Amino acid sequence: MSEIQQATKNKRVVVAMSGGVDSSVAAALLVEQGYEVIGMMMRLWSEPGIGQAAPANRCCTPDQMADARRVAGLLGIPFYVVDVQDHFRQTIVQFFIDEHANGRTPNPCIECNRQIRFTHLLERALALDAHYLATGHYAQVQHTPTGYQLRKGADPNKDQSYVLHVLDQEKLGQVLFPIGGYTKPEVRELAQKFGLPVASKSESQDLCFLGDGDYRRFLNEYSQKSSQPGPILTSSGEELGAHEGLPFYTIGQRKGLGISASEPLFVLRKDVARNALIVGPKSELGQQTLIARDVNWLSGQPPQQPVPAQIKIRYKAQGIAGEVVDLGNGRSQVTFHEPVFGVTAGQGAVFYDGDVCLGGGIIADGVNDLGDKTAVPPIEAASLSLAHIQVLS
């Protein structure tokens, strides 16, 4: 038995499986390293079927469930499915609807990691006496003399530390990201080495709970407020036309506004109180500061002094040089060295020192920088055992 296998012997890990190549390889690596591995898949809410399509969340379709079960069988590990449809609907889907209705553009993956995967599912894992919850995220956790660090994944094209900034020191000590040190091509090679049937499986990029991937149609059906037309105004109040509903426009958008002007105009912001879309020239689009709310510092302590950092203002964006100042009460002010474009309320603002994720929060809308989201308490997961978990065939 190798030193790694000796160190991991008798340590139980629950792996969040999705039927994809990343989580499958994560499970295979942990089995190879000698952990006692349990595969677990969440059944999440999806809207009723569109046309002839059966209702199925894109993260847990019947095909994906079958793939995950097949991989678990090949690896010789137990596989369980837990039904969290109602909790997911109440927390993530309703959050998505409410944020859009309030003029913000949310990232549901951040909220899902905060409330579902690394709260509810983690509690399920710990209630089964697991030492860790493992996922197929491209990120890395490093234990240092001062605590745990969250670091970027080795593959810069797949790094997912942005959506993991919600973790804290306790949770960083309870999670494993087995593929974080690999690139995507290397992960596919590992899948072939392990003989996994998902080695060449493609990835889904759409929001998982949309029946057809069309968020505009979804909001039209599930939120009356979303499709209310209103005026398109300049910063000075001049009315140039009408919009079809504030959620259907993005900050920085130029095309598709249905207005004419002597110079190109861009969406600057959304005025929810007046149900107005505010537009202006590119010179008005850049901004050098923002307020982030619900800020989580991964060290566990807000900094006492301004922190130089690279700040990502959306998942696939490059880090932008700036400075972060803690304002207390879960808020931070970010000041960029140069004006930046496309700062969007509701997206994450995540702070980095090189490859180390320092923390992050949600970009406030400038009107109510504390936000108006009411937290939904996580489902109690105490006193669970393997016998209590719903096993779906």
Beta-strand fraction estimate = 25-35%
CATH architecture designation of the largest domain: 3-Layer(aba) Sandwich
Helix content: 10-25%
Model regions low in confidence, pLDDT < 50 over at least 5 residues: 367-393
Structural class: alpha/beta
Structural key phrases:
393 residues, alpha/beta, SH3 type barrels, Elongation Factor Tu (Ef-tu), domain 3, 6-stranded antiparallel β-barrel, 5-stranded parallel beta sheet, 17 strands, disordered C terminus
What does this structure look like?
This protein is an alpha/beta fold. It has three domains: 3-213, Rossmann fold, CATH 3.40.50; 228-283, Adenine nucleotide alpha hydrolases-like domains (SH3 type barrels, Roll), CATH 2.30.30.280; 287-363, Beta Barrel (Elongation Factor Tu (Ef-tu), domain 3). Helices cover 23% and strands 27% of the residues. It is built from eight helices and 17 strands. The chain has helices at residues 3-8, 21-32, 62-75, 85-101, 108-127, 169-172, 184-193, 215-222; strands at residues 12-16, 36-43, 79-83, 132-134, 139-144, 147-152, 175-176, 230-234, 239-243, 266-271, 276-280, 287-297, 307-312, 320-328, 331-340, 348-353, 356-363. The protein has a six-stranded antiparallel β-barrel with strand order 12-15-14-13-16-17. Strands 3-2-1-4-7 form a five-stranded parallel β-sheet, with helices on both faces. It is globular.
